[in-house]
Amino acid sequence: MSLQQLANRLQESFASGFVKAVEWRGDLAVTVTRDRLHEVAQFLHDDPAMDFDYIVHVSSVDWPDDEERFEVVYEFYSIKKHHRIRLKTRVPESDCIADSLTDIWKGADFMEREVYDMMGIRFRHHPDLRRILLPDDYTEGYPLRKDFPLRGRGWRDTFEFLDETAR
Amino acid sequence: MAMEDQRTTVYKIDPAHPESETLPTLRSEELLLNMGPQHPATHGVLKVILELEGERLVKSTPVLGYLHRGVEKLAEDGTYHQFIPHTDRLDYVCAMYNNFAYCRAVEKLMNITVPDRAEYLRTIVAEIQRIIGHQFWLGTQALDIGAMGVFFYCFRDREILMDWFDELCGARLTTSWYRIGGVERDFTPSLIEKLKQFLDYFPPKIDEYVVFLEKNRIWLGRTKGVAIISAEDAVSFGLSGPTLRGSGVDYDLRKAEPYSAYSKCEFSVPLGKNGDTYDRYWIRVQELYESIKIVRQCLEQMQEGPIMADVPSVTLPPKQRVFTNLESMIQQFKLFSQGFDAPPGEIYCGTEAHKGELGFYIVSTGGGKPYRLKIRAPSFIHMGAFDHMSRGYMISDAVTIFGTYDIVMGECDR
Q1: Is B68 on the interface with A (CB under 8 A)?
Q2: CATH class entry, domain B72-413
Q3: Tell me: the pLDDT tens digits for B156-168?
């Protein structure tokens, strides 16, 4: 099945939740609405023509100017059919939560925890949603958000005699 | 009963042995043991909280992040070229493969075709790096299990290749030899000569390593039937590389999505049957032979030609020209200070490193810096399966199990 056919098939099956499909540099990226994410993922995993049995990575992108600020990105691969798909969904900052896919791909556990740790997106029904790379008691926020300063926040930032630029 | 704790169980003495009736009732409970982060066998700063019942692992919780340096955040502040040395520090045992995976990802983003000779050079060096990686793995894994001799033999031969790298790019570990669109410099005749000597020298040495282990009862006892993972689970967990192929899943990006010169070489992908530590060991040893085969074929097929794609807006000019030609100097200066203008878009590009699938997901909004760069690190994803794979095994097997992933914390924590 070509990437175009794959995208069409998804669009037919999920007319209401389908936002867009983009094919660029040989990668297919499909955006769906947040409420259909789990359903679409289940379909991708179970449908014999799709057969995406392998989870490649879970990532997230921060778009601070957009209304729905965060983008959660899943990438799947089919070992038997040799095709890839990137599944994306948007979550707003005020309600920063998406459905967890740990019940479909076990590997999503650590990958989603990393997204939570780095970008602060929570996952509903995740079995163990804790910080993973940063310490459990880290309270400075989520470092990969665009409003988090590159040098991090440290003791120096509490020095009131330093102006903004020197910090 | 006074003991409300659910983890507490009371064992009565077996009535079949009346002599034990004189003993008081034994109470047993699970023991929580912190292993690491300072532990010589955890391959870096890895901490695992082990819940034990006797010597059996009931549950293990990896605690990662002791080596977290925020590489993904750093990437957002540098140009594409500036990130290459950072990739050396991910998997610091096998820097070449990280460079390779990253450069391939950027080339996919920029839609650059690398010249033939550069592809062969890249494949040769990548396979040499795979050999180094597997030697390092074999040595340390055997050392963890208690066979010290193998370690010395592996490191003796690894040293030859390290010196070879030194001659190639001036560094042993943090190499940064790959460039976007090609490689930094060509092989010299002396390098090719040394490589050919090594190809003849090495295969009998692999047999030597194997002799140490294949008939060693301790090695067999500690690897056969340990940390078994079924093919279905291995796929579901997203394992890759020899860890996945040990369970018999035929997934190797060099074959599935051939890149560089791999499509022009003949080699086989060894597959395991049982999915245990021994199979993963066997696969890595077989891959040593396959790597030798690939390097040999590349050396034969390689023709003279350019080693860098000629896309002046993206790729670097030859170093010699930078010193003598004004335009080249300006080109180099602009590329390093401002970077090149990447088109808006996003790509994912995976490369079969010796640990597994090392991938880069790059989002660009135009301009010289990546908007978001995500590293798919095989070590990190393998640690996700650690709890599943270690349940029910002995505490001493914990070391074997993270050994079998070939884990490097620099890559795991990023």
Answers
A1: yes
A2: mainly alpha
A3: 899 999 999 999 9
Note whether A133 contacts B111, CB cutoff 8 Å. Answer: no
Contact between A3 and A23 under an 8 Å Cβ cutoff? The reply is yes
Residue with more model confidence, B40 or B25: B40
Stretch A54-66: mean pLDDT, rounded? 90
pLDDT at B23: 54
* Count of domains observed in chain A: 1
**Mean pLDDT on B210-221:** 85
Cα separations (Å) of B264 from A164, B229, B286, B356, B366?
57, 33, 20, 21, 34
Is A61 close to B371, i.e. CB distance below 8 A?
A: yes
Cβ–Cβ under 8 Å, residues A116 and A97: no
In this prediction, residue A167 has a pLDDT band, given cuts at 50, 70 and 90, of very low
Sign of the CA dihedral B255, B237, B30, B46? positive
Contacts of A56 in chain B (CB under 8 A): 238, 348, 350, 357, 359, 376
Given pLDDT bands bounded at 50, 70 and 90, which one contains residue B3?
Answer: very low
Given a cut of 70, is residue B21 above it in pLDDT? Answer: no
Verify whether the Cβ–Cβ distance B238 to A56 is below 8 Å: yes
| DSSP letter assigned to residue B308 | B
Nearest CA in chain B to A143: B73
Averaged pLDDT of chain B:
86
DSSP B14: P
Collect all residues with Cβ–Cβ distance below 8 Å to B310 and sequence separation of at least 6. Answer: none
Residue ranges of domains in chain B: 72-413
* Domain interval for residue A117: 3-135
CA distance A135 to B11: 38
Query: Residues of chain B with pLDDT > 70: what percent?
Result: 93
Q: Which residue of A20, A22, A24, A25 to mutate against B (max B Cβ within 10 Å)?
A: A25
Answer yes or no: pTM beyond 0.90.
no
| CATH code assigned at A54 | 3.30.460.80
DSSP letters, B195-226, are: HHHHHHHHHHHHHHHHHHHHT-HHHHHHHTTS
Do B385 and A143 make contact, defined as CB atoms within 8 angstroms?
no
- Output the CA–CA distances (angstroms, integers) from residue A84 to A59, B256, B360, B373, B380, in the order listed: 15, 12, 14, 19, 21
**Chain B residues lying within 8 Å of A148, measured CB to CB:** 73
Confidence of residue B43 (pLDDT cuts 50, 70, 90): confident
